[in-house]
Amino acid sequence: MNIHLKPTYRLTIVGLLVALNILLNIFLRLPTPSGFISLVEVGIFLAGWLFGPRLGGTVGGLTGLLVDLFAGYPQWMLGSLIIHGLEGYLIGACWQIAGNKQRSTWFGLVLSLIIGGSAMLAGYWLFGIGLQLLNHAALATALTISTAELATNVLQVLVGFGIAIILRPVLIRYLKRLN
Asked: What's the CA gap between 28 and 136, in Å, rounded?
């Protein structure tokens, strides 16, 4: 279900999702050898499910870019903008196509997890290889490092999905009262 709100409300909610995602990631982030595990997926899943592909992509891209900027990882900013933006767009698109009907809610949620999460995993794997190669690493080393990060990225997607599943009904009830 896409929530239809007045444009001012919609813009405010999207801004709040981006801001809350950034705050979550400033205070709750686990370092890894080449970056960190964050809760950025929570806001991306919620934005895609509640507001569709355009705003899901907007929240994903802005959050990814700003989190990397504030966390001190500027080399990842462009990649995060594109990867999380695509992830949010795909989550919203999957939800509109498959989950926007009462009977297929869980199918749409799981499909958005698989498609959006796969885009994030593939994107960071490829971008990580590219960054390692730019740092003059051998191809085998770049592949090893990026492949090692896959497990933490899978964990990030699954934890973000789980928290978003819990928050989704609460936000739907709240947003329905705004109209």
From this structure: 32
